[in-house]
Amino acid sequence: LPGQILDQWFESEPLKATLATDVVIGAMASPHTPGSGYVLLHHVMGELEGRRGAWGYVAGGMGALSQAIAHAAAAQGAHIFAEKEVCHVLLGRDGRAQGIVLQDGTEVKSKLVLSSASPQITFLELIPQEQLPKDFVQRIQQVDTRSPVTKINVAVDRLPSFLAAPNTRDGQPLPHHQCSIHLNCEGTHLLHQAFTEATHGHPSSRPMIELCIPSAVDPGLAPQGYHVVSLFTQYTPSVLAGGRPWDEQARNAYADTVFDCIEAYAPGFKASVIGRDILTPPDLERIFGLPGGNIFHGGMSLDQLYFTRPAPSYSGYRSPVPGLYLCGSGAHPGGGVMGAAGRNAARVALEDFRCL
Fold this sequence. Notes:
Distance between the termini: 48 Å
Largest sheet: 5 strands, antiparallel
Number of helices: 11
Number of strands: 12
Shape: globular
Helix content: 25-40%
Order of helices and strands: HHHEEHEEEEHHEEHEEHHEHEH
Strand order of the largest sheet: 8-9-10-7-11
Structural class: alpha+beta
């Protein structure tokens, strides 16, 4: 249990709870859920510029990372079709992947197909089911994709001023504005309570909030004097109690709860808000193709990792369809901005390509 590990190494409850947020980040789990400690390990593995376990901010926002990858690919001769929805994978008579078909009917032929879409979209929507083993299809259907995450993007006309560290008169960002700020995390019991509410279909009344202010380190993201605030919050169930939908009323009620919590730490925050965008689990699924709204394409539990991700015997990036490879978060080693799944899948695909 991660709670026991944290108790063994640390005495400060706020410090233990802060570390515990990475135990449950993106996971419908509690710090007291057996096996959830792996999620913490997953988020501190690797390094950034020689600093082990460190994270970094991408200048220009996460979209800048996608653009960098796109530019590198184009420089090597890749052709990129943006905003072209894929209808299905094109299969030959021998059942081998031969390219893709776009929604408008355009066929794009290729010897290999790599999909960074989720396993659910790749194998349950883009491939005819009769082309796949029944046990494989059943496994993909049974993957736990529950997500507790609601993302709220906020525009404000001034920096939040926290009671614990008030702003200076010049209104310039302070060191804590340039970090990840965790709220409602004074104790691991708060995280467990928030999780318990969601398991009963109710959004947390005191949700875990990870607050970042990207414009504090990247001023070009907002006009001078204004800022953008990113709120990564949980727990919100994908399906509300009684089957109620996540309509505008439910979205705004939860966002108001989150803003009331922030207001208690930083009075004046609500008055500074000039716009907000609320993305509940169903929104994340609809807009970004994340199954269940899960940012990892499937839970990072021990039964869905390593040799079982996305399914037993198919953790090596190859799929039951020859020439089709999975290279996204649903493949080994899972989610996170690390590129490991893509790199590994590319190496496997190149190895097969040389044998064609």
